[in-house]
Structures are given as C-alpha cells and as structure tokens.
Amino acid sequence: MVGNDFVLPRPKMQTARPAALPQPAVRLRQAVSVPAVEPAVFEVPADTHHSPWSYPAELFHRYSLGAFALLFLLVGSSASQVGAAYWSAHITFASATSTRVLTQAKQGPNAVIANNQLADTLQNITTQPLSLTIGAKTVPVASDTINSWLQVVKDKQATYIHVNNDAIAKSLTSAAAPYVKEPSNQVTLTHTDGSSQVIAAGRDGTQIGDTKNLANQIGKTLLSAKGMQMTLPIETLPFNAVSATSIGKLLEVNVTTKQMWAYDAGQLTRQFPISAGAPETPTPIGQYKIYQKLAIQDMKGFNANGTKYFQPHVRWINYFLPGGYAVHGNYWRPTSFFGAVNSSHGCVSLPDDQAKWVYDWAPIGTTVITHT
What we know:
This protein is an alpha+beta fold. It contains eight helices and 20 strands. It is about 25% helix and about 30% strand. The radius of gyration is 47 Å and the shape is elongated. The N and C termini lie far apart (about 100 Å).
C-alpha cells in the first residue's frame, strides 16, 4: 500500500534462522555476555517449555520502531483513501445541484415566475372561468382539469410552468365522447317477388373536429388567467344506403307484427313469431350488433311500476344492446303469446327450441335491426 520507496532496515543478526531457535537460552548466551554476578536472569532453561508468543514478542521488541512506522503508514494511507472518496462524492453532489438546468418542453406555452409567486399564480390559472360548448350544450371546465394541463418544475431561483397541449387535446376528446355517434346505414331488403323494402332508416353520425388546433389556442391563452369560452366543433358523418345482401347474417325484428326473420346475405333462412317489449317497457328501435352470448342466466330487474322481478334459468341469450336487451328463450309464456302479445321488459323472446336455433346460428357481431 505504500509502494517500494520505504524499506525497513534489516538488522545485523549473528544468530541462526528463526526456525532453528528452539533453545532461546543458548542463543542469548551466544549473542550477549552476561556478567558472572548476574546469574541467568533472562535465561530460560533449555529443558523448560516456553510460550508460543515468546518469539513474536521478541521480534516486536527488537524491531518496534520499524513496526510503528509501518503501522503509521498503513493507517495514514487508508485514511487518505476514505477521505478522498468522501470529498469526491461531496464535490460531485454539489456540482450536480449547482449545474441543474431547466429543460424547456418541446411544445406548448411556457412561463417563468418567482418561487414566492407560485401559489398565487397557480390559483389564478386553475380558477379562471373556462367553459366548453359542444353542439347545443355548454359545460364549465373544472379546476382539477385545468391543473392537469400544467407541468410545474421548481428551480432554486424560479418556477417553470408549461402548458401541455397534448393533455388539453385528450380532455377535449373525452368531453366530446358522448356526442360522437357512428352513422346508421339505410338498409334495403329485396324480397323474392322483386319488391324492395327499407327495413332500417339511415341516421347521420357525428364526430369532433380538430382538437389539436383548439388545444393550441387554449394553451396560448391559459397562462394569462383571463378566462375563455371554447367551442368544440362537431362534424356530421352522413349515412350510407346499403342492401341487406352486403350485411351477412341479419336478424330483422318487426315489433308491430311481432315477427323476426333471419337473413344470410339477403337470403331468408327462417321466420319466427316473437314477443317483444310491452307498451310500458318497449323494445328499442334501431340497428345493433350482438356483443355477448350466454347459454343460461338468471334475469332480474324492475317492472314498470317499480316492483322487482326475478326470472331464473333463462336460456339461449344474445345481447344486442347494453341495458339488458337481448334475443332469448322464453319458457314462462304460453305458446299463444308469440306472434300475438308483446309482454317483455324490452327483450325479443321466443320459445326455447327456436331460441336455441338462433343462438347457434347467429355469432357475435350479427346485425339486429328492430323497427315498427
């Protein structure tokens, strides 16, 4: 640890090597002349067993000055290394803190304010009056939403505030979600006699406009804390007129005549008498798709008068609209109801054996069109 520059002086010894010193008394008599009047004070009889530490102790006594010097160098070298490591870490930490630089965000407005003004500035920005108009409805923007648009980084001298335009665009898209609707195609069915019938009326859809451009406009004004009123553009998506032959598998339900037809690429496969929703709990009218199928389920809910109902072990269920609307089997109504009486809570029901055929024939994604 101390290199090759320090060499302990080698003492001049007239004795033999250490391994040849089993009799220290004889060795002492050879190395030192003891006066006759001092009879063998330091002498150990040759036939007496000595301690194993006797020889190391004697060596230490002889070379104590060199041993202390070596020990001093070892301790000093270790202390120097520990100290160097400590000061090296200390300097690195101080340097990292003092040289930290705020990184400007790539997009969005920025503002730098004094640290002691941060609380008041954020309060003014997040509580300013903001409102969003979507179609015919205007809603206020909550303070928590505005706060989620801000990114704040504190430095030693000031605070950097950045407006995240991507976060604003995400909020606008979420707010507009209830107003986004897919268009419903107008579906025309051609019968075997050549006549045509529109079994589903077309309905235009809606989509939101350029949220990124609006987000940029909001970002430019937000830090001024003066408030604003925003209008989210809604665009119309026109419907298409299509033939039933392009749809694939299709279940057509006429809730007035209480009949259901199964078509495959426009070709009639089967017809069933059904019982649709009662007048007080009607079947929704429109175009839907089967999204879930269950072989058996207990059904429960509320009657029109507010009382509860429970129907166990309903079979062959094809859900086509959230809220509990399905095409399913019905074992608790007499056969005379089907094709004659609408009695359900909004579902389209038919006898179990016929419902089993529909369940096996119509996969998830099958179109269901209900009309009057």
